Amino acid sequence: MSYDWSRFSQKVRIKVPLQKVYDAWTTQKGIESWFLRMAHFSTADGRLRAPDETIAVGDNYHWRWHGHPDTVEEFGSILEANGKDRLRFIFGKAGVVTVDLEDENGATMMHITQEEIPTDEESRVQFHIGCQTGWTFYRANIKCVLEGISDARNKGYNEEQLD
To answer: Looking at residue 163, what is its pLDDT?
Structure first.
């Protein structure tokens, strides 16, 4: 049996309604609450979306993380955002990420799949292993933040001094 380095999936159950999880992924305010230090979303015609405005298919993003200098940035575009339970986006050179949400009696099962990962040796380490490790942390963090437990990101570091 051979291992498929081009994809992986993870899931977590979050004890909040599905719409709250969807909003946490699809607005600047939401995604900055658990994932990113800075998330700018712009429409296909270049208009910057408001912090509470929901993203749409064709939008582009510009992201920065806590614990990293401003030179570490991610750019990509939104492939699917159906307004309720599914989001797909190009995750830079690391492939395509799909987030599927399912209602479980008022809680939400969140499935994250990353696919179309390049399979050369460097990409296996950087994108398959690295992103899988990263999503393990961030799926735990979204659960904690949305359930009101805590936030485990590297907040408070002087980002510019991390070069």
So the answer is: 46
